[in-house]
Design brief:
The protein is built from seven helices and no strands. Helix 2 runs antiparallel to helix 3, helix 3 packs antiparallel against helix 4 and helix 5 packs antiparallel against helix 6. The mean pLDDT is about 75. The protein is mostly helical. The termini are far apart.
Length: about 210
């Protein structure tokens, strides 16, 4: 069913995924000949970026079938294309095959290559991790700065509100004082007028 489904797919990326899953099942079940047939039928469907995986998988199938020469051919071919993780896997397989064949010179060469690929992957991973950590630190720094600015803005708003309330309160108090003084002044004026009026009346009566 998987093979029939793959035939109907015109998108290479989807085809690669379906075929890779199907071939992986055949390999897991030990049906290496069937896996090889599926690989050979699909070789022209693989994109350039997936070519290394295709070659490495062909090497694995021939390796399982104990056809070491063919396995070596495909493993070596996969070292020329694809991702460094594929190169690492192929170098490890070549080291194992040559070591098993007693060809220790080639085994040593591929053991050295394996170490280089592994080290490169480690450095690449460490570099990616450092970049991720730096990115996270920057994001945390931005969040902290934003929080600091929010707190500062909140404090500024609070201080402004307090000052505004104090100013309003002072204005109310000043208005109250002015009104009281005005009332007192009016009362004193009335008393003074009454006193003058009374004095004038007394003077008239005295005459």
């Amino acid at each position: 069913k998987g093979a029939e489904m793959a035939k109907k797919v015109h998108d290479n990326k989807t085809y690669e995924i379906i075929m890779s899953e199907l071939i992986a099942v055949y390999i897991e079940k030990g049906q290496y000949q069937k896996a090889k047939e599926m690989m050979l039928k699909s070789k022209n469907k693989y994109s350039p970026t997936a070519k290394g995986i295709y070659l490495n998988t062909m090497g694995e199938i021939y390796d399982k079938l104990n056809q070491k020469d063919s396995a070596i051919y495909y493993y070596k071919a996969s070292l020329k294309v694809g991702h460094i993780t594929v190169h690492q896997a192929s170098a490890e397989c070549l080291y194992r095959i040559y070591d098993g064949l007693g060809d220790y010179k080639n085994a040593a060469d591929y053991a050295f290559d394996l170490a280089l690929y592994t080290d490169s992957i480690k450095n690449m991973t460490e570099s990616q991790n450092k970049s991720l950590i730096t990115s996270l630190k920057n994001k945390i720094g931005v969040e902290k700065e934003n929080s600091r600015l929010k707190v500062r803005a909140a404090l500024t708003n609070t201080v402004f509100s307090i000052v505004s309330l104090l100013v309003v309160g002072a204005m109310v108090m000043l208005n109250f004082i002015v009104r009281n003084r005005k009332k007192k002044y009016q009362a004193q004026q009335e008393l003074l007028e009454m006193a003058l009026k009374e004095q004038a009346e007394n003077s008239i009566q005295a005459k």
